[in-house]
Design brief:
Elements: H1 3-16, E1 34-38, H2 43-54, E2 58-63, H3 66-78, E3 85-88, H4 96-109, E4 115-118, H5 134-160, E5 165-170, H6 173-176, H7 183-202, E6 209-215, H8 222-227, H9 244-250, E7 261-263
Helix pairs in contact: 4-5, 5-7
Bound molecules: NADP nicotinamide-adenine-dinucleotide phosphate.
């Protein structure tokens, strides 16, 4: 290759390389994909639901507050995107029957699941371990760690029916750098990383299912405001602005990306 050809080949390669942080799905590229998002009523989950629907996915909005979920449903309908579905599930109180009926309904309505994003979480107390309220500890571990485990377990059969399924656990900076006062939240998020790694390895023989985690970084949401009440929210990125890595992992471009931890910012 002469120098001009080398330059042309370099520029062609860079055109094709995808930076997950800047990823935006082409219009319609998620058509036919069925994606369930927990915590779809607000913050990151809401933003991801809207972006997935905008790209053509049929989104299953899961949450505990029907009125808030209906508002997101209406926003998606107003975009002219595929009709979403609402799956009421309070992760603090759901029983085996609730999980099983969700899985059954997905089987009946859609026949498969192509994406599962575990965005729901509770902050819990910001307190010293010595003083941490034990019932709150149990609730946070249940909602943030045990419930995503159960939901994943009951939905693996539907994910298996997809040619290209993506599971995403939502991580946090406190996993790599546990700091005082983060209590059960930090422990649950660390547990999700173990879950991500084990599940990815256990499903190694099934290349149609990938399992990754994403730390979204700081986002302008109710949870962030509760954790940092003195912070000016306008200095914090919106959930929509950090959605690139999530959308990349949900897209066919990430087919072979499995068992990894990502940072969205
Ligand atoms: N914001 C940040 O700076 C930041 C940084 C790192 C990681 N994260 C992670 O990002 C994810 C999204 O959080 P966010 O910042 O978007 O916070 P958010 O706006 O407070 O959203 C949390 C979501 O979890 C839902 N939820 C809480 N308890 C639930 C339960 N028992 N059953 C079902 N759903 C429940 C909430 O539902 P309701 O609307 O009904 O309350 C809400 O939709 C979380 O996993 C969080 O840990 C956030």
């Amino acid at each position: 290759m002469n120098p001009r050809e080398v330059l042309m080949s370099l520029s062609m390669n860079s055109t094709h390389a995808i930076d997950p942080k800047l990823f935006k799905p082409e219009a319609g590229s998620f058509a036919g994909r069925v994606i369930l998002i927990t915590g779809a009523s607000s913050g990151l989950g809401r933003a991801l639901a809207i972006e997935c629907a905008r790209a053509g996915a049929s989104v299953i909005l899961s949450g505990r507050n029907g009125a808030k979920l209906e508002r997101v449903y209406d926003e998606i309908e107003a975009l002219g995107a595929p009709q979403p579905a609402i799956a009421m599930l309070d992760l603090a109180t759901a029983t085996a029957v609730d999980y099983d009926s969700l899985a059954d309904n997905i089987g009946t309505e859609f026949g498969k699941l192509d994406g599962l994003v575990h965005a729901a979480a509770l902050l819990g107390d910001r307190a010293l371990l010595e003083q941490y309220d034990v019932p709150t500890w149990c609730k946070v571990l249940h909602v943030n760690l045990t419930a995503p485990f159960i939901l994943t377990q009951v939905l693996v059969p539907a994910l298996r029916k997809s040619a290209d399924a993506s599971i995403i656990f939502v991580s946090s900076a406190v996993v790599r750098n546990p700091r005082p006062f983060w209590g059960a939240y930090a422990v649950a998020k660390s547990g999700l990383e173990a879950l991500r790694s084990m599940l990815s390895q256990e499903l190694e023989g099934e290349p149609n299912i990938r399992v990754n985690s994403v730390n979204p970084g700081r986002m302008r949401t109710a949870m962030r405001a509760a954790a940092y009440p003195a912070e000016d929210p306008n200095t914090v990125p919106t959930p929509q602005s950090v959605s690139g890595v999530f959308l990349y992992l949900l897209s066919a471009h990430a087919r072979t990306v499995d068992g990894e931890y990502f940072e969205a910012q």
